[in-house]
Design a protein that fits this description.
Blueprint (H helix, E strand, L loop, with lengths): L1 E10 L3 H8 L12 E6 L8 E6 L5 E9 L3 E8 L3 E12 L2 E11 L3 H28 L7
Antiparallel strand pairs: 1-7, 2-3, 3-4, 4-5, 5-6, 6-7
């Protein structure tokens, strides 16, 4: 099964500022209400582990598939050969600010059974999360985590 959803938002902030907020894992809960925190466990490059702590769920270790500063962060978590979930954020300059797109996708023979409900929850939350990310990036002095 393959399933994918994408949402978008626009921020008045430049791509560098949106990127900085996206990578500030201590404050993810301020814009991504389903996540308590996120941390990158090494250099921001493919194969590095990125750990995310969803609310009411155990922390999850994603692997970075791609990272292009100010443009792209792509993550994957796999369940053996039977299922995978991918998260992707893309940033692009747009009218003095930044266009932000987020995609969630699942694939593999048991993806529907293992991951569909979680992926749908993520997809349903993406528009609001991206609006909060966009707004947070315009805040010149974000408050404490």
């Amino acid at each position: 099964m393959t399933w994918e959803r994408t949402a978008g938002a626009t921020s008045a902030a430049p791509p560098q500022r949106v990127w900085d907020v996206l990578l500030d894992g201590r404050r993810w809960s301020l814009w991504s209400h389903g996540v308590e925190w996120m941390t990158v466990e090494g250099p921001l490059e493919p194969a590095t582990v990125l750990t995310m702590k969803p609310k009411r769920a155990p922390q999850t270790a994603f692997r970075i598939e791609a990272a292009v500063p100010q443009r792209l962060l792509a993550l994957v978590v796999t369940f053996g050969p039977v299922a995978a979930m991918r998260l992707r954020w893309e940033l692009a300059p747009a009218d003095g600010g930044t266009a932000i797109a987020q995609t969630v996708g699942i694939g593999g023979p048991l993806a529907g059974l293992l991951l569909r409900r979680a992926a749908e929850r993520i997809a349903n939350a993406m528009p609001g999360n991206l609006e909060r990310l966009a707004a947070r990036a315009t805040d010149p002095a974000p408050g404490p985590a």
